[in-house]
Design brief:
The chain contains 9 helices and 10 strands. By secondary structure, it is an alpha/beta fold. It has a 6-stranded parallel sheet with strand order 7-6-5-9-8-10. Strands 1-4-2-3 form a 4-stranded mixed sheet. α6 (about 140-145) links the parallel β6 (about 125-130) and β7. The chain is elongated.
Length: about 240
């Protein structure tokens, strides 16, 4: 059974300020939870409505009804399990390999998908500016499908972080060089901008090479690509260049 205080705590974690106060975040669904259990994330408590995840110590596990699970779930259609994990110490960014950097990405689904793409393409580091949505937002965690356990996400002063780098800085723009025709290195920073406004002026000044995905449609009227879709294309080209 879940208590009123537990319900109050869990529902409060849907807000960033309470996640920061309690140093906890929510994960839902057996796939996401199992991925986190198999990683360095530390389980605080697990709530289940069916008999699953038997490897979790009974002291950290509570069986609850579907009705109670619905009260604490962030999902419109609740899964059969919800877990609280401890938020770890912040990752320290470093210059190594291909790095993805995000300039004010606001949509949780986009951030979660980008984290999943980084995992798929072997990008170990993701730098986010402070205006980018919180990685521990429940919708972000859900969208990563467990990839949050394998990609180091760092929140940084992006302008400061990009200064004096010894690796190239690539920016994604509508008027950039055709990514399919460029020779791309194994190391560098790939910046993707805000869904509505693109890369900000202060960050644009630090870009050493502008890249674009060309439009092939006959009418050339499509305004832009979804940022997560664009990330997939750019990462595919960077990785293809290393073969």
């Amino acid at each position: 059974m879940v208590s009123k205080n537990q319900i109050k705590l869990i529902t409060s974690l849907q807000q960033k300020k309470f996640r920061q106060i309690h140093k906890l975040f929510i994960a839902e669904g057996i796939k996401v939870i199992q991925e986190l259990l198999d990683s360095n994330f530390v389980l605080e408590h697990l709530f289940v409505s069916v008999s699953i995840l038997d490897n979790v110590n009974s002291s950290q596990k509570t069986s609850i009804s579907e009705a109670d699970l619905k009260k604490i779930s962030c999902l419109a259609t609740p899964n059969n399990c919800l877990a609280l994990f401890k938020i770890p110490e912040a990752n320290q960014p470093h210059q190594k390999g291909l790095i993805v950097a995000l300039d004010s990405i606001r949509d949780p689904g986009n951030l979660g998908t980008i984290i999943r793409l980084c995992d798929w393409f072997g990008v170990e580091q993701l730098w986010c500016d402070e205006q980018t949505v919180d990685v521990y937002n429940p919708k972000v965690v859900q969208a990563t499908m467990g990839s949050i356990a394998r990609v180091a996400v760092s929140y940084v002063d992006l302008e400061k972080q990009l200064q004096n780098l010894s690796i190239p800085v690539f920016g994604t723009f509508m008027d950039g060089k055709n990514v399919y025709k460029e020779k791309l290195p194994e190391e560098g920073v790939l910046i993707l901008g805000n869904e509505a406004n693109g890369i900000s002026e202060k960050i644009e000044k630090l870009v050493t090479k502008r890249l674009a995905i060309p439009r092939f449609g006959t009418l050339q009227q499509t305004e832009s690509l979804n940022v997560a879709t664009a990330t997939a294309i750019f990462l595919s080209e960077f990785k293809r260049a290393t073969f």
